[in-house]
């Protein structure tokens, strides 16, 4: 299949490395004489015709920039028949031959359905700070989030030690504990709580009291935003669960955990919620490199007509995997990594 015009969009939450991926798509396409159209605000841009040519000039200097020069959104391209028809009309209007979709589970699921239902020639690129997409060993954005969280934990150590406090650090991690475990290990946390392993508040308090008996009057606890208490010791009210574990917006477990710790141990406890700082700012060198490799691979896949597939990292190699494989499950935290973290609890 000859490709003369290639569209590219970024969807879902922003992640460090998006601009590096866009730059790579454009530069690789230029080598093959392919024109690239940038689609603004994710699928929304394809619905409303918000498109601009991406040239060597327009991508100059964007490699180290955070965010995405195209903007992003969480619009569903399959929401109604009218939306689908507007996309079809704009696809013809701008003479698109193929589309590279850069996003996480939600964006790539929509891309897969667009390919299956309407036959659109689409290639995916995995992006999420949570690192929870199957089919790839790593997603870009994760390394930057990990570095930001680790630096925050490093800084909180001095405050915790100065004031003999427990510091609870709530990090992102929608249904997977990769950031919590990685940053917790790298930052020397004393307890790490992740979605994959429901925690018992009695065990948390036992560790804190034991540290205090040894003269360690401060502690650092890293908790993923979707970490749940064990049903045996669930201290959350139904209203609190509804508020904290909303599918569309997680967050708040850190404050509830801190309140319970202070109540049961009498140790002064404070909370820091890192929130969106984890996915903002400049990408790390690793994320720039990974995003660049994935962007180049995506264009090569377009030329090879590997549609309905996603560029992925497996080992040290760039490979093509079905998008269906990537979105069929959540890549949970590796048990071996969590066992490594547990070595340092207490």
The gist of it:
Its main location: cytoplasm. The protein has 346 residues and is α/β, with parallel strands linked by helices.
How would you describe this structure in keywords?
346 residues, alpha/beta, Rossmann fold, seven-stranded mixed β-sheet, four-stranded parallel β-sheet, 12 helices, 42% helix, elongated, glycolysis, AMP binding
Radius of gyration: 22 Å
Instruction: Identify the CATH architecture of the largest domain.
Output: 3-Layer(aba) Sandwich
User: How many extended strands?
Assistant: 11
Major sheet attributes? 7 strands, mixed
Low-pLDDT segments: none
Mean pLDDT: 93
- Strand order across the biggest sheet? 3-2-1-4-5-10-11
Tell me the layout of helices and strands.
Blueprint: E1 5-10, H1 18-31, E2 35-39, H2 43-48, E3 51-54, H3 81-93, E4 98-103, H4 105-118, E5 122-126, H5 142-163, E6 166-171, H6 178-187, E7 191-193, H7 201-213, E8 219-224, H8 238-244, H9 253-265, E9 269-273, H10 285-303, E10 309-314, E11 317-322, H11 323-327, H12 335-342
Parallel strand pairs: 1-2, 1-4, 4-5, 5-10, 6-8, 6-9, 7-8
Antiparallel strand pairs: 2-3, 10-11
Binding site for ATP: 13, 74-75, 104-107
Binding site for substrate: 128-130, 165, 172-174, 225, 270, 276-279
Subunit structure: Homodimer or homotetramer.
Description:
Pfam families: PFK. Keywords: ATP-binding, Cytoplasm, Glycolysis, Kinase, Magnesium, Metal-binding, Nucleotide-binding, Transferase. A seven-stranded mixed β-sheet has the order 3-2-1-4-5-10-11, sandwiched between helices. It is built from twelve helices and eleven strands. The protein has helices spanning 18-31, 43-48, 81-93, 105-118, 142-163, 178-187, 201-213, 238-244, 253-265, 285-303, 323-327, 335-342, and strands spanning 5-10, 35-39, 51-54, 98-103, 122-126, 166-171, 191-193, 219-224, 269-273, 309-314, 317-322. The longest helix has 22 residues, at 142-163. The chain has two domains: 5-141 and 283-327, Rossmann fold; 145-280, Rossmann fold (3-Layer(aba) Sandwich). With 346 residues, the chain is an alpha/beta fold. 42% of the residues lie in helices and 17% in strands.
């Amino acid at each position: 299949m000859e490709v003369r015009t290639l569209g590219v969009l970024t969807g879902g939450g922003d992640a460090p490395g998006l601009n590096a991926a866009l730059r790579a798509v454009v530069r690789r396409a230029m080598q093959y004489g392919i024109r690239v159209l940038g689609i603004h605000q994710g699928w929304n841009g394809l619905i409303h015709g918000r498109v601009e040519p991406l040239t060597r000039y327009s991508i100059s200097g964007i490699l180290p920039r955070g965010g995405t020069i195209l903007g992003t959104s969480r619009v569903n391209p399959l929401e109604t028949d009218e939306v689908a028809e507007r996309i079809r009309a704009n696809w013809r209007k701008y003479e698109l031959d193929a589309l590279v979709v850069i996003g996480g589970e939600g964006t790539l699921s929509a891309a897969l359905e667009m390919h299956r239902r309407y036959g659109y020639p689409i290639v995916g690129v995995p992006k999420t700070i949570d690192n929870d997409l199957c089919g790839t060993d790593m997603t870009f954005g994760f390394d930057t989030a990990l570095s930001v969280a680790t630096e925050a934990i490093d800084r909180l150590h001095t405050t915790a030690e100065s004031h003999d406090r427990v510091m609870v650090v709530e990090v992102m991690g929608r249904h997977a504990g990769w950031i919590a475990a990685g940053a917790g290990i790298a930052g020397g946390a004393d307890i790490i709580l992740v979605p994959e392993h429901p925690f018992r508040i009695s065990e948390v308090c036992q560790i804190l009291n034991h540290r205090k008996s040894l003269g360690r009057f401060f502690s650092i606890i890293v908790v993923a935003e979707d970490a749940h208490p064990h049903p045996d010791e669930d201290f959350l009210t139904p209203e609190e669960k509804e508020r904290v574990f909303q599918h569309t917006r997680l967050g708040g477990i850190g404050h509830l955990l801190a309140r319970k710790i202070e109540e049961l141990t009498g140790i002064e406890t404070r909370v820091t919620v890192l929130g969106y700082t984890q996915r903002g700012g400049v990408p790390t060198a690793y994320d720039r490199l990974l995003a660049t490799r994935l962007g180049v691979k995506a264009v090569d896949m377009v030329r090879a007509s590997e549609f309905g597939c996603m560029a992925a990292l497996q080992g040290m190699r760039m490979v093509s995997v079905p998008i269906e494989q990537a979105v069929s499950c959540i890549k949970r935290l590796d048990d071996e990594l969590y066992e490594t973290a547990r070595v340092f609890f207490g």
